[in-house]
Amino acid sequence: DQQVKQNSPSLSVQEGRISILNCDYTNSMFDYFLWYKKYPAEGPTFLISISSIKDKNEDGRFTVFLNKSAKHLSLHIVPSQPGDSAVYFCAARRTNFGNEKLTFGTGTRLTIIP
Amino acid sequence: GAGVSQTPSNKVTEKGKYVELRCDPISGHTALYWYRQSLGQGPEFLIYFQGTGAADDSGLPNDRFFAVRPEGSVSTLKIQRTERGDSAVYLCASSLRPLGDGGELFFGEGSRLTVL
Asked: What integer is the mean pLDDT of A9-28?
């Protein structure tokens, strides 16, 4: 049972335009969400996160939006740059005491076209 | 280096053999995590250590998998009687403090295990 879903395996965007990556979750107990970026032959690196008490979090070119009623979040990158080409993973967590487990989606490969 | 170090980077073994994968976390990081990433999938949680103890091993798929962290730093993931389905990239991550205390995971490059 895939509790975190990224339905687009790949996405191509022109340099300078906006990239929008989507993520859906099924477990309503998840209340903290993260995005990770992964380059080939490297481990994932943390990008940005959002708590369920917010609906938006912004960090430079990266903004994450959370729609709790739809159980949907999205990552916006604007403007997109060639160095943004990577696989992006959405992850979710239930912040009950002692729970350190992240549940990841299957990833979306983003390619920025120069 | 200053990051999480995992060895070996690649391991090819035969079905039925025993394998050990090592993780050297960032110095001072008390929390350590193992994840497994199969082809076309996202990372899947295996086990979490706080200090020397396994605080959550609920993600270990069966009793062929075992992990230790005897001195609270280096951790070893041990897989007995390997099966072809164990083929994956095994990722280790460490954190200065637990996620529940506002920690952030730093991942290593992973150990790619191939079971023939």
From this structure: 97
Residues 21-50 of A with CB under 8 A from B: 41-46
Contact A105 B33 (CB under 8 A): no
Say what the pLDDT of residue B1 is.
Answer: 54
A contacts of B100 (beta carbons < 8 Å): 95, 97-100
Identify whether A114 is preceded by a cis peptide bond (ω within 30 of 0): no
pLDDT score at B116: 96
Indicate the Cα dihedral angle B46, B34, A38, A74, nearest 10°: 50
- Count Cβ atoms within 10 A of the Cβ of residue A5 and give its class: 0-12 exposed, 13-18 middle, 19 or more buried: middle
Q: Label the pairing between strands A56-59 and A62-67.
A: antiparallel
Segments of chain B with pLDDT less than 50:
none
The nearest alpha carbon in chain A to B103 belongs to A100
Burial of B96 from C-beta contacts in 10 A (0-12 / 13-18 / 19+): middle
* Whole-angstrom distance, CA of residue A62 vs CA of residue A21: 11
Share of chain B above pLDDT 70, in %: 99
- Residue A31 phi, psi dihedral angles, 5° rounding: -135, 10
The arithmetic mean of pLDDT across residues A73-79, rounded, is 98
From CA B43, how far away is CA A53, in angstroms rounded? 26
Terminal CA-to-CA distance of chain A, rounded, Å?
38
- Provide the pLDDT confidence category of residue A1 given band limits of 50, 70 and 90: confident
